[in-house]
Amino acid sequence: MPDSNKTVPSAMHLKASSAAARYGMGFLITAIYAFLLAPVLIIVFTSFNPTNANTFPPTGFSLRWYGTFLETSGFTDAFRFSMWLGAIAAVGATVIGFLSAYAIVRFLGRRREAGQSLALLPVMIPHILISISLLLALTIVPFPELGGLIVGHIIICLPFTIAGITASLEGVDEQLELAAMTLGASRLRTLWEVVIPLIAPGLLSALIFAFIVSFGDVYIALFLSGPGRTTLPIEIFSYMQWESTPVVAAITTVQILMIVALGLVVERLVGLRKIMRV
Amino acid sequence: MSAVLELRRVLKRFGETLGVGPVDFEVQEGEFLTLLGPSGCGKTTTLHIVAGLLHPDEGTVTLGGRDITRLDPQHRDMGLVFQNYALFPHKTVFDNVAFGLRMRKVAQSKIRDRVSRMLEVVGLPGVEARQPHQLSGGQRQRVALARALVIEPSLLLLDEPLSNLDAVLRKRMRHELREIQQRLGIATVFVTHDQDEAFEMSDRVILMNVGHIEQVATPEELYNSPTSRFAAEFIGEVNLIDGTVASLIGDSAVVEAALGGRYAARGDGGALGVGDKVLLMVRPERIGIETSPSANGEAVEATVANRVFSGNTLIFTLRTASGIELTASKPSTAQYRDIAPQSTVWLDLGDCRLLPRET
Fold first, then answer.
1. I need a surface site. Which of A72, B45, B129, B253 has the fewest CB within 10 A?
2. What is the mean pLDDT of residues B208-229?
3. pLDDT over threshold 80, residue B251
4. What is the domain range of residue A210?
5. Is the complex ipTM higher than 0.85?
6. Same domain for A195 and A241?
């Protein structure tokens, strides 16, 4: 405390300093959020520019760049391809992630920590290295390029699905599974009848999360997407090398809206999970 | 009577440590058999081996004459009630109880009948549509029992099913559980650490300790004729007095006791020789207390060191001339209420049991 000649700080003094601390903290948090969200807001505003220039603040209000996005087949094709790829990668990563998470939680026993760390390894490896490795692998193994892209996306999504589903599975009492088995259910039937319904919210949020990860990927697609099969980020990337119009801002805004909507769904599901646990 | 379930030389290790075994026992038709013992004695491990949730390292398990040692739990035809009931939280009571029947591909119309009939048997008619979390602990317990029984298993397994209930409910459920078991005539293996539960419900009790079977007996035999120090001390209160075998007559022995005097004791004297160190066991309620020396002069003189009133009984702590403390419990009638602390009394040890002295 600055005024050290006061041996007993008065209640008023304490109150004042704690209020100051609270305001200081509030300001700091606001500043951090502003810093994080400002680029996003700038992009959203820029997308409504009526002119060719990426000016901020926008010089007017127009939806022409959204129209341009929908009329440019390069962008809409890439968008559709990214959606398709995201869906396949999400389903693949969730199915494999569920099986891995189940094995980690139920069968690894004391080696569980090691198993979990190993499963999370792809987050630590730069994605560009995974991409190059897959590209090299494709020169050795005769495998369609599209397959390489899907595998790459499943690899980068897996750590997220495994981590999320492991957390959900930890909330499932093993005795429920044992009970199902003593009542005549096989292991597979037990998974279907007991485990999957109980972790359904966790599975759905893993699915959505994996979709978002796949949709936003640049590095894997950079090496593994061929002509006619460009993902949206790559299409935007190559467009921006030659031109710069607010159409990119418009596309980005659409993506942001999509991700926010999916994020809200996950939020609801995570809340739901608490109710489901009883 | 024939055995429904038989365990022969069953042994299970967990890494280096022995989980259970080797154990041998069988369950007769319609019998209520209890596995009793302190925590860690291997009783739950044994039950899990019976249910197929664990596979033993050695030995065989047979059900109705068929070897099921390696059979998966789903093919075993047993109903298991878990300590925490393990009801499926996302299914209604009906779907919980119907689960085993659905797995057995019973026709839908029959399932409805059998579920509602079984819910009546366990005293919970008409709760089919409820969710497990809407039920009280006692009700969940009954649903779990119904779920295990509705498949008409050849064996019912109960893993400490009463330990999560409050004291009053627990006592009531003991009788109800036993009554349902007898009505259905189903062979049952019950696991508990609670001696009162074991005694009130069982036809036979298997007392277990650190992975092996200590004694197999009816509740009465177990209480009156324990064969080991562990059995004597685990069940009820007991006085154990050091002694030396003076002479042997068949299964009985005359023992020179540390508190002075010789006492006849029954027990497994066959393995003993004259001069062996043994223990004499006397239950507190079997010790006779007299305020005057008996005519034959066999009674032991003692001082009342302490007297505790606990409702219907008085518990005396008695110190003999040789410094040995004995506990006696007597009905709190006028006859015993008048025995004041520090007064001198004469004790009749009555029927003593002979126990081997373990080192």
1. B129
2. 91
3. no
4. 66-276
5. no
6. yes
